[in-house]
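Appendix B. One record, verbatim.
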Amino acid sequence: MAVDKGEEYASTNGWGRERHYAVPTTDLQCYKVPEILEWLNGALRERIFPALHEVFGGLLKGRRLRVFDAFLVKYDYSEGQRRLPLHNDQSLISLTIAMNEEKDFGGGGTWFYETGEVSLGERGEGWCLEKRKQKQIPPCLVSSAHTHN
């Protein structure tokens, strides 16, 4: 649903390419599409925030979680957004959710510096990282794939 709604919105309004100075992405801010925002808020409340508290219990003790920046990223071999360099995200905890099936990526994934592993994941699977962990997105070799950050 989020990918379809994002593509529908972008067909009229375009994908953003100016928001992130250090690690630019082709993306769409989730709050701009009401259906995506509603889906995201429900997922955060019902599944994501409780899971983060379980995984990062000590780190999050006494903290109320909130979203700093939520966006749908589009990787497209033919349009230039094929990869991201090695980087640290700015938040205390960073979450990436695969929005396509693994077979739709044809390359790419998330590469984790500490382990040297690349992970694609199936649609709906995600990765959460503490701020000090580094990741990068290897080249995507297909026409279009999406992640939610």
